[in-house]
Specification:
The protein contains twelve helices and twelve strands. The strands form three sheets. Strands 1, 2, 3, 4, 5, 6, 9 and 10 form an eight-stranded antiparallel β-sheet that branches. The N terminus is likely disordered. Helices cover 20% and strands 12% of the residues. Keywords: Signal. This is Lipoprotein.
Length: 534
C-alpha cells in the first residue's frame, strides 16, 4: 500500500499543471486539503488474463499488476477475475453470486433488520417484474426482448454489505435521514460510507443483473447462457451484469460491466460485433448463435435498415443559460443525422396503446412500451495492442478465451467484459470527493453537466474519471449510451451519454428525495418509509 501511495504522489507531481488548468475551468479554488490527481498510466499492450482465473476472490487491486501492466489493464483484470470467481459454482452447483442477498433481504420491506442467510437464493418474480424500482436508470423505460418479453432486473449484495446495514441500522428511514443530515453538515466525514474491507476480507460488493425470460417455444440456451428458474418456475437467461466493489484502494465503488455476446450488434461497421441476421459464436467462429437477445434482423430490414448500420437518435444536446449564469433552460435534443431505427424512444402514445393492433408483451395486451431494436453505439474493439481502454478489454477477452479456466462451465465463454470505470488515483474510502462528468457547459463559471459538488465544499478531494468514461450496458443503460439523446419527459434533462459516475455520486440522501442513496449505492432508495401518522 505504501508503494501504491508513492506512485500516486509521483503521478500527481508530474501532472500538477494539467490539474490546475482543469480546476480553473471548473471554477474551483486551491486548498491544501485537496488531493489532486490525473488520468492513470495507459495499459500495457496486449493486456492478458494470465493469473486472473477466478480461483480466489481478489479483495483489492494489486500494486504489482499496476506496475507490470499499467492501471487500466490491472483494473480490468481485477474485475474479470472477480466475475469469474462469482460465476463459478459453489458446493451446491450454483454460481457463487446467486448466494448473495437479494435487495429485499438486505433491506426488508417490513422494516425488520436484515440477517444474512448462507446458500443459494433463487430469483424472485417480485424482483424481476418491471416496476418503478426495477426500471432502467434515468428513464424507467421498459426494455423488451426480441420475443416481446420484458427484461427483468435483480440486485444483490454480499455479506459485508448486509452486515454493515445490520450494524448501523441504515435499513431504517430515521437512521438514513440522520446520515443524510450528517453528510449535509460535513460531507468529508458524515454520511453513509460502506466498508472497504482489508487485504484479507472483502469490502462491500453489489451486483445488478439483467435477465431475459424464455418460454416453452424457445427454452433458455443453457449451453451458451446461464439459465435460472424463479420461484414460479419461469425460465430466465442472464444477459447482463454490473459488478461494483469497494476495497482499501478503490474507495470510489469501482464499476465493471459484462454482457452476453448475443445482446446487440454494433450500430456501425468496423467493430467486433457487426450487424447481421445472427450473432457470431465467439467459441466456434465458423458458426452463429440462434438469435440476438435485443435485436431483430427481420424487423430492422423491414424498417429500411441497410444491413450495415442502424441509426440512433443522435441529435446534439441543446440548452440555454438563464440570466443567473447557471440555471439551464430549454433543454432538448437536436435533429438526428438520419432517421433512427435503433435505441429509439420506446414509449407509445395514447393512440398507439388504444390501437387494436398493439402487440402484447408477456401476454398482456396494449402495453405502454414498444419493442425496439437495440445496438451498441460504442463499438466493441478488436484486440490490436494499442493500449486504449477498449483495446485492453478486447485483448483481455481474447486471452481468456484462449486460456479459459478448466473449472468453469463453458457457457461463461459467451460473456464479455465490456469495460470499467474508476477514479484516477482512487478516492478515499470515507468522505465525499468531487469530479466532473458529462459535457462542459457554457455557464458562468463553466461547469460540467453532472458535477459531484460535495455540497459546495471545495476542500474535499478532487478526482478525475478514468477507464471507460462512456461505459454503458446495452441491457441496463440502453438509452443512455454515448451518442444518444432523448428527452424522457417535458422539461427533464435529456438522456445522453452518461457513465456510472453521472448518476452514482458519493452522496447520502434520505429515501424518496429525489432518490435514496448512500456511498454511490441506490440500494438505499429501497429503505421503507413509514406512513405518516393520522
Amino acid at each position: 500500500m505504501n508503494g501504491m501511495r508513492m506512485r500516486t504522489l509521483y503521478i500527481v507531481a508530474m501532472q500538477a499543471v494539467a490539474i490546475a488548468a482543469s480546476m480553473l475551468l471548473a471554477g474551483c479554488t486551491a486548498d491544501a486539503r485537496r488531493e489532486e490527481t490525473t488520468r492513470p498510466r495507459a495499459s500495457s499492450p496486449g493486456c492478458d488474463a494470465t493469473g486472473a482465473d477466478g480461483s480466489r476472490f481478489w479483495t483489492d487491486l494489486s500494486p504489482g499488476d499496476v506496475d507490470a501492466r499499467g492501471e487500466d489493464c490491472a483494473m480490468l483484470r481485477f474485475a474479470l477475475n472477480n466475475f469469474l470467481h462469482l460465476a463459478a459454482n459453489d458446493r451446491q452447483g450454483h454460481p457463487r453470486f446467486m448466494s448473495y442477498a437479494p435487495w429485499y433481504e438486505a433491506i426488508p420491506q417490513d422494516g425488520g433488520a436484515p440477517r444474512w442467510r448462507d446458500g443459494y437464493k433463487p430469483l424472485a418474480t417480485r424482483a424481476l417484474r418491471k416496476t418503478a424500482r426495477e426500471g432502467q436508470p434515468g428513464d424507467g423505460f421498459v426494455l423488451i426482448d426480441a420475443h416481446h418479453r420484458r427484461i427483468g432486473y435483480d440486485v444483490r449484495v454480499n455479506r459485508s454489505y448486509v452486515d454493515y446495514l445490520s450494524r448501523t441500522g441504515l435499513y431504517r428511514a430515521d437512521r438514513l435521514q440522520a446520515a443524510a443530515d450528517a453528510f449535509k453538515a460535513d460531507p468529508a466525514t458524515g454520511g453513509v460510507w460502506l466498508p472497504a474491507g482489508t487485504r484479507d476480507t472483502p469490502g462491500a460488493v453489489s451486483l445488478k443483473t439483467a435477465w431475459r425470460r424464455f418460454g416453452d417455444e424457445a427454452p433458455c440456451p443453457a449451453q451458451t447462457m446461464h439459465c435460472e428458474r424463479d420461484a414460479q418456475g419461469r425460465e430466465w437467461g442472464l444477459i447482463g451484469l454490473h459488478l461494483v466493489q469497494k476495497t482499501p484502494t478503490l474507495g470510489e465503488m469501482t464499476w465493471a460491466t459484462f454482457e452476453h455476446v448475443a445482446n446487440a450488434p454494433d450500430c456501425a461497421p468496423g467493430g467486433a460485433a457487426p450487424i447481421a441476421p445472427r450473432p457470431r459464436d465467439p467459441v466456434h467462429p465458423e458458426r452463429t448463435l440462434a438469435e440476438w437477445n435485443l435485436f431483430d434482423w427481420t424487423s430492422y430490414r423491414a424498417q429500411g435498415g441497410d444491413g450495415a448500420r442502424c441509426a440512433v437518435p443522435d441529435g446534439a444536446y441543446r440548452y440555454t443559460v438563464a440570466a443567473d449564469g447557471q440555471t439551464l433552460q430549454d433543454q432538448t435534443c437536436g435533429t438526428p443525422s438520419a432517421t433512427p431505427l435503433c435505441n429509439i424512444d420506446p414509449r407509445r402514445n395514447a393512440t398507439d396503446v388504444a390501437s387494436a393492433t398493439a402487440l402484447s408483451v408477456d401476454g398482456e395486451s396494449n402495453p405502454a412500451y414498444s419493442r425496439i431494436n437495440v445496438c451498441r453505439t460504442t463499438q466493441l474493439s478488436q484486440c490490436t495492442g494499442d493500449g486504449s481502454p477498449g483495446d485492453a478489454a478486447a485483448c483481455l477477452d481474447a486471452s481468456l478465451r484462449a486460456n479459459f479456466p478448466a473449472n468453469l462451465d463453458g457457457k461463461w465463454r459467451y460473456y464479455r467484459l465490456i469495460g470499467n470505470a474508476y477514479m484516477a488515483g482512487h478516492a478515499p474510502v470515507t468522505g465525499c470527493f468531487r469530479y466532473d462528468d458529462g459535457p462542459m457547459l457554457t455557464t458562468t463559471p463553466p461547469r460540467s453537466r453532472f458535477p459531484s459538488t460535495c455540497n459546495g465544499i471545495d476542500t474535499t478531494p478532487l478526482r478525475v474519471r478514468a477507464g471507460d468514461t462512456a461505459l454503458a450496458n446495452t441491457a441496463m443503460e440502453t438509452w443512455m449510451q454515448a451518442g444518444t439523446c432523448l428527452v424522457p419527459s417535458p422539461g427533464a434533462t435529456p438522456l445522453m451519454g452518461r457513465d456510472c459516475f453521472a448518476c452514482h455520486t458519493p452522496s447520502t440522501n434520505p429515501p424518496g428525495w429525489p432518490f435514496g442513496m448512500g456511498d454511490m449505492s441506490f440500494l438505499f432508495d429501497r429503505v421503507p418509509v413509514p406512513a405518516p401518522e393520522p
